[in-house]
Write a structure and sequence with these properties.
single chain; mainly alpha; Farnesyl Diphosphate Synthase; two-stranded antiparallel sheet; Polyprenyl synthetase family protein; magnesium; Polyprenyl_synt_CS
Length: 383
């Protein structure tokens, strides 16, 4: 153990730089702080990869770029304000360690996105080639033997796995007191299992063609809500040794806002502006995502006896050749069937119930205000 009671990992991968804790009292400053903590940690780990082989270090550079060159940092933000709302003080000795610990959530996110893009055969992410596409391109450019797509898939799997491993490393190396690290372990473990479970259910439901609302909501609950809002809040509260009733309220809030966040994402996946979202319009349809938006449309069409509309929607889901005109037609059907309005109403209802959960417990300021603002931001965004 170190003098401060933090877990001793042998060396500090962050160095002595405490600047990431500057300006934590506003959202912009928090995002900058998270990115500084990530950059410091990743700089250390890429030094380790160079010792293995420069080729491996070059590959991990792609992971570092993926993590640092995009993202809204939503998960660390929720975790930070969860900690603050449970009594964590920005000027406390553990603030830097907590900032580093919650920043590790971005590496969980990197794992999920890299693997998700591979499973969905997505070509772009944040306006850039996805990891598996980029490494397939490298294979072609170098004239290597074998199949470029298989090499790209292998690289994406390994780099996604590395991001998950580094997330654990970053949490453990953050400098938390051992007692806080032990409290953080249950939500951290649950979050990883829930995320991977949700990913599997997504793949399973795509394979079985399950377009039911139950299947869609199950994926939303575990693939997105749990690791986007619910468990990050739980993690933050656990780090502050928050009261059980606060953790319960956080989890209810997080589950509802997390699902609402995904429902907004589903709408953007079909109706969003590619210049803003960074993904081609209608990509969710081409990738075969079984969203609640699609499930509601199919159910509405069946109830109304509109078989042509039902068949058109189901045929579009998973059609890699769906062109812009086809996307426009599906947009019109989703609107005419009332699916878009239904999803908007569901988002509003979930946001309301989430805010009710927050109002039922005492949350320290300014976190209480910030969490309300985050709920609005997560459910009304355009990208």
């Amino acid at each position: 153990m170190t003098r401060t009671g933090a877990l001793d990992t042998g060396h500090d991968p962050f160095g002595a730089d405490t600047r990431p804790v500057d300006h934590l009292l506003d959202d912009t400053g928090l995002i900058v702080a998270v990115e500084a903590a990530l950059a410091a940690f990743l700089r250390s780990r890429t030094t380790d990869t160079t010792a293995i082989d420069p080729a491996f270090a070059e590959a991990t550079d792609a992971l570092v770029a993926f993590v640092l060159q995009g993202g809204k940092r939503i998960r660390p933000t929720f975790a930070w304000w969860g900690w603050r709302g449970a009594g964590g003080a920005v000027d406390s000795p553990e603030a830097v360690a907590v900032l580093r610990a919650v920043s590790a959530l971005e590496l969980i996110q990197a794992c999920a996105l890299i693997h998700d893009d591979l499973m969905d055969a997505s070509a772009t992410r944040r306006g850039r080639p996805t990891v598996h596409v980029e490494f397939a391109r490298r294979h072609v450019a170098a004239g290597w033997t074998g199949q470029p797509a298989r090499f790209g898939a292998a690289a994406a799997i390994l780099l996604g796995d590395l991001a998950l491993a580094w997330a654990d490393d970053m949490l453990r190396a953050a400098g938390l007191p051992l007692s806080a690290l032990l409290r953080a372990t249950p939500p951290w473990q649950a979050m990883r299992t829930e995320m991977l479970g949700g990913q599997y259910l997504d793949v399973l439901h795509q394979a079985t063609g399950d377009t039911s609302t139950r299947a869609a909501l199950q994926i939303d609950r575990y693939k997105t809500a749990a690791y986007t809002v619910e468990r990050p809040l739980h993690l933050g509260a656990a780090l502050a040794d928050g009261r059980p009733e606060l953790i319960s309220a956080y989890r209810r809030f997080g589950a509802d806002i997390g699902v609402a966040f995904q429902l907004r994402d589903d709408l953007l996946g079909v109706f969003g502006d590619p210049a803003v979202t960074g993904k081609p319009a209608g990509d969710d349809l081409r990738e075969g995502k079984r969203t609640l938006l699609v499930a509601v449309a199919v159910e509405r069409a069946e109830k109304r006896g509109q078989r042509a509309a039902r068949d058109a929607v189901t045929a579009a889901v998973g059609d890699p050749d769906l062109d812009a005109a086809g996307v426009d037609r599906i947009r019109d059907l989703l609107t005419d069937l009332g699916a878009v309005q239904t999803i908007e109403h569901r988002i509003a209802a979930l946001t309301g119930s989430a805010l009710d959960a927050l109002s039922a417990v005492e949350i320290d300021e300014p976190a209480a205000t910030e969490l309300v603002a985050l709920a609005e931001l997560a459910t009304r965004r355009r990208s």
